[in-house]
Amino acid sequence: MMKIRQVIIALALVLMGGAITPSLVYAEGCGTAESCARSGVDQVSSSGTSMTVGGIIKIIVDILLFILGAVCVVMIVIGGIKYATSQGDQTAVSSAKNTILYAVVGLVVAIAAYAIVNFVLAQFGV
Known about the structure:
Blueprint: H1 2-20, H2 33-39, H3 53-84, H4 90-123
Helix pairs in contact: 3-4
């Protein structure tokens, strides 16, 4: 059990290290409105853009789906590690399979919920 914990901690540290590494962005200002329009960047007013309630809901659902997808991937990896380190113990194998199964079922439910929310928002014209 201690070895599994060490593997999980090492994996978490590697993933967090990649997440906090700064990434460089080489962006160029477009200057005038005409050059912005040609480059595909529309001019935005100084007050910003207005958001509808449906737009806010869609953004929240997108973020939650991303987080849930990441959690499911982590749970599948944990289930795989548990399966690989079970050494033939039937209870450990069963626990690992259940972890993977529940992660996949959770992901399917999340995708279905995402589809339902997008369908409802489309029906209301949001």
